[in-house]
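During the second year of the project, the team shifted from modelling isolated chains to modelling whole assemblies. The rationale, set out in the original proposal, was that interfaces cannot be judged from single-chain predictions alone. As a representative example for this report, we include one of the complexes processed in the last quarter. Its constituent sequences, exactly as entered into the pipeline, are reproduced here:
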Amino acid sequence: MNRVAGALPLRLSPGWNRLLSAVALLALWQGAAMAVADAALLPSPLATFQAGYAELMRGELLFHVAITLARVAVAFTLAMLIGSAIGILLGRSEPLDQIFNGWLVIGLNLPALVTMVLCYMWFGLTEVAAVLAVTINKVPTVAAIVREGTKALDRSLFEMTHVFGVKPSRVLTRVILPQLAPSLMAAARAGLALTWKIVLVVELLGRPNGVGFQIRTFFNFFDIASILAYSLAFIAAVVAIETFLLQPIDRRLGRWRRA
Amino acid sequence: MTGLVLRGVTREFSEPADRHVLRGVDLAIAPGEFVSLVGPSGSGKTTLLRLIAGLDTPDAGSVTWQAERRPRFGAVFQEPRLVPWLSILDNLLLVTGPDRRERARALLAEVELAGNEDALPGQLSGGMQRRAALARALLVEPEFLMLDEPLISLDSALAERMRSLLNTYWRERRTTTLLVTHNLSEAAELSTRILILSPTEGRITADCALPLPDPRQRNDRAVTAVLEDLRRMTQAWPRPDTPEARDPLSRAS
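Output from the structure prediction step:
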């Protein structure tokens, strides 16, 4: 059997490759920590784990992660609903797209920090202001992705439903949304990654709880181990959502394409 | 049952310049008629159907229904237009709602698709998809049935059985039906009237009533005589292997 020139002779299963990758990252981190040789500046993986475990035992870690996840969930849901509705409207109507495309471009380029500061100044340091700031940042991204998906919808199916006089609600749920599923999933993935990062900054600027608030607190105490522990705990939660919620939905929605 | 009147319907497309597809088409279809529209490729048959279905608007003229509201449409398009992610049964129920499930199953059996209710369209052959589209059109109990080459990809025996199904359906309900076909025999077998759409003039150039017994056989003497007349009328049409037939736009000027 010929082997492709330059290919690695070792072939492992995807699971082993992922495990190897994680071990390599930990080793790199450990090596860097040993090289820096200052636990306050770059704590080792073990020290970070111990800091996280201590926070977990005190009940703080789960509480703040849960608060942040709740904010992410509310802002994410609002942004997906509003952004999808706008995207479908713009994708289906050329005049509306021409009128509002400029608005969308402004929204896409508006710095998240500006929205956050303005929302806090207009509505005070409140929960509503925090969620609104995140939602406003996310809506243009979702709308832009869904708009492109809507433009690519199969027009012949619309003609069919028009001729048969199918109810608009049924056209939406049985014809439009399934076709938009790949765009909605792309928007959801991009949205989740963006939303949680913005939520942390919003919490850092103006909320009395959440992972962002904790990071600010540990920043004041120069506690890098706890900052890393909270970050890793939150990343783990988001990866779990991606793996156990978004990916199964994506697989389910794409079943007909494999038929 | 619903009638339909077209007056002076003109539709042209910008490419190539000044190309008329339809030029002042006048047509009246009485309630309960089974009308076949015959013409070669590029003569504007499908354009006419799109105008009647409300999928396009004429540049001049009018399409008027002899009813207070637009009739309930049943349609078979040139392509099956089944929703790829819905099962065959769900494709039928999409146009009616879930309460017609039993009737949908019965119609699928009539078009010889029993046992394929849960299949996805992509798992069926082109001919099976066309039959599913036919069942969908009949499921809505249409007041106006529009059929655009519904049997084109079926083998001859199956097409014969589907013609029989259509004929029985029409005789039982007298649904106003407009069939587009290039198959003169099919038109003669099913219709009460045949319209010839000229490939060069862009309008209906012959309107033949068929006061024939029902059901008919292709080899009936009366049907054969009508077919002979129709073949004489259409013998000047471009054959399928001529450049004009391959590119109907080339005839426009």
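Chain B is about 35% helix and 25% strand. Chain B has a mean pLDDT of 84.
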